[in-house]
Amino acid sequence: xxxxxxxxxxxxxxxxxxxxxxxxxxxxxxxxxxxxxxxxxxxxxxxxxxxxxxxxxxxxxxxxxxxxxxxxxxxxxxxxxxxxxxxxxxxxxxxxxxxxxxxxxxxxxxxxxxxxxxxxxxxxxxxxxxxxxxxxxxxxxxxxxxxxxxxxxxxxxxxxxxxxxxxxxxxxxxxxxxxxxxxxxxxxxxxxxxxxxxxxxxxxxxxxxxxxxxx
Length: 215
Ligand SMILES: C[S@@+](CC[C@H](N)C(=O)[O-])C[C@H]1O[C@@H](n2cnc3c(N)ncnc32)[C@H](O)[C@@H]1O
Description:
Layout: H1 39-50, E1 56-58, H2 65-72, E2 77-79, H3 84-94, H4 99-112, H5 128-133, H6 136-150, H7 155-168, H8 193-206
Helix pairs in contact: 1-2, 3-7, 4-7, 4-8, 6-7, 7-8
S-adenosylmethionine is lined by residues 33, 35-37, 60, 62-63, 65, 80-83, 86.
């Protein structure tokens, strides 16, 4: 194993990456996450220190920025994170999925929105924390969407749409969009869940994903 002494890296503008929108590359933009790495920093670290040097481990992997960049460079990697949502996001970001595996369940989900009947959620369970962040209108639609996604048999597709749903929760809630700390925005009109879900799914599906031969 080779260790790099990071104390010897000089301060240099080469590491500032001004005007580079690396978060739009690959699958990095699937899900917001607190204190994410800037992908270009990881990319430069890999290209400078890790090429031809075995595996990369990120033991606080978060939503998998390091693993995505490692994969993009054809390097094996391992990630550890205590947060099951982080694990799910990372899986969805690095697992190769063929377009058809997503297109069919996506179309079925969109069609199901026309069958949504809010009266069927009249007796939806109360929950102190959820009801603090969500209005009833959005909460019912999210419950419907969650049930539909859980019925998708193919695991990779199910995970992909769960990640999409998880990402739009902030938009569909009363959470202040510009804040990272949890805080209610009294003036916010939460996004309509079906609409924002479709928008984000399309964005995720349009991104360059990993292909099967790279697994
Ligand atoms: C700042 S985030 C890392 C973000 C990551 N660099 C990225 O780009 O997505 C730190 C992560 O450490 C994880 N973490 C904290 N304590 C941990 C522990 N004891 N074991 C494993 N993961 C832990 C948290 O769940 C969180 O996802």
